[in-house]
Amino acid sequence: MASPCENCCGPLDPKKAIRDELMRGRLAAALLGNKLKDTEIAHFVDQIVGSLSKSLALLDAANVVAVGSSSSDVREDQNSAGKVEIENLAEDCKRGKHGKRIVLSPCRQVKSRSKDDGYKWNKYGEKAIKGFTHRRSYFCCSHKGDPGCNAKRHVQIAEDDNSMFIITYIGQHTCKRDATDQGQSSHCGLKNQSMISFESSDYNINVAQNSPILTSGILSDMKPDSPMSENTMMNPNPEIDEGFMLNMGMASDYYGDLDLDPLEYVDEVPPLSNDYDDEMFSFDEDEFFLFGN
DNA sequence: GGATCTTGACCGAAACC
DNA sequence: GGTTTCGGTCAAGATCC
């Protein structure tokens, strides 16, 4: 499916567009920091620059994310109605007599050791699913009644590893909660940074495509002995021992406009040492201007 | 007492015949 | 086109804090 912009402006590279915007922001912050040298404000500017650098790095790393062990198990097809049909999530998921296919709305799937992703969920149901040993739990956002947040998720114990959870996210958090809510930060009470949120629907990127490993940017300059493997993505918060999730914003917006994989599957990421931050994302001015240009 | 969880019933959609 | 099967949701009661 071609994006609307593609019709008038030619092929759009959303990843590049996001990257360009982040670079612009980083450049502006760096210049501001230069102006504010020796002031307390410069410290905060440094944080902004560092944050943008991380975003760029994670964006690049998004292309690295392997679909994980289940990649070969998941076959998906986007039909004309925009629904995603997933056939046999697991090899041992046999069809019943009537072999009903599993049909999901555009969603993201995450494998995690913990069910906790920083959001507050209300459980509204549980169901035994044919072909799966464990029951599936259904959750909706606790703030559903707030501004009508329609975010939902399904949680199921992984068939191949009972210590892992397969979490399927459907819809987007539209609730607006302040950063103090439950000690969590920013949008809808997200309490950790293991999620990147590109809320704007102007740009959409696909993290599940078979992109080259560490295509460009900061991560490509990482030390070879860094604690990140080729097929995994960094968890920005080493204290959170769970799968790393990328929130690409409104799934329907995202998949409705672009012919992209509607389902991302981000495999588990090993926790990192506490000093990864400086090692991975140290800001180098020469490097920055190299990327910034 | 409010929030959250559990669980059976119900509904709509897809597959089968 | 009717029937069957299934996944998803609802809602009432139970439990927890």
Give a verbal description of the structure.
The protein is an alpha+beta fold and 293 residues long. The protein has one domain. It is built from six helices and eleven strands. It has a six-stranded mixed β-sheet with strand order 5-6-7-8-4-11, with no helix packed on it. Strands 1-2-3 form a three-stranded antiparallel β-sheet, with no helix packed on it. α2 runs antiparallel to α3 and α2 crosses α6. The structure holds a DNA duplex (17 and 17 nucleotides). Its main location: nucleus.
Put the structure in a nutshell:
The protein is of the alpha+beta class and 293 residues long. It contains 6 helices and 11 strands. Helix content is 25%, strand content 18%.
Could you name the key traits of this structure?
293 residues; alpha+beta; 6-stranded mixed β-sheet; 3-stranded antiparallel β-sheet; 18% strand; elongated; disordered N terminus; disordered C terminus; DNA-binding; WRKY_dom_sf
Q: Which SSEs are present, and which pair or pack?
A:
Layout: H1 4-9, H2 14-35, H3 40-62, E1 75-78, E2 84-87, E3 102-104, E4 107-112, E5 121-128, E6 135-141, E7 152-157, E8 165-170, E9 195-197, E10 245-247, H4 251-257, E11 263-266, H5 276-281, H6 285-292
Parallel strand pairs: 4-11, 9-10
Antiparallel strand pairs: 1-2, 2-3, 4-8, 5-6, 6-7, 7-8
Helix pairs in contact: 2-3, 2-6
This protein binds a DNA duplex (17 and 17 nucleotides) through residues 95-104, 122-127, 129-130, 136, 138, 140, 142, 154.
